[in-house]
Amino acid sequence: MGNHPVIAKKSGENRGSLHDNLIAENFKLGDKYSTDQDLGAGKATQIKRGQLKRFTKSTQNTGVAIKLCDGTVQSGSNLKTEAMILSQCDHPNIVRLFEVTKVNGQMSLVLELCDGGCVLDRLPYKESQASNIVRQICSAV
Q: Which PANTHER family does this UniProt record tie to the protein (predicted)?
């Protein structure tokens, strides 16, 4: 993972309000990230694969997942709640939140890209594999 701008701070630090942590109010997705693939969509969100356009020696050009809100009040509220929860999480088995932005006036999340597929896509599992997956889930919880 690269050293992208992060709003998720280590536990014990003053996080302030979510709005105080927005990286950019009038963020243009194409200014900072290139997008090359739709990864999926939910009821009120769209997820795109992105790549940081400009990177330095200290940042890796790591892919990200950009979750875009469709603009409905409900979806904006859900995304804000998701961002608040993720900003408090710091665990290797929980997706990292890099940035909270507004794209075209709508909230978006820039997340760690987890492109290994769905755990159910690899069924059936051996008992040892299944216990390892359950152990990782329990560790995150």
A: SERINE/THREONINE-PROTEIN KINASE (PTHR24347)
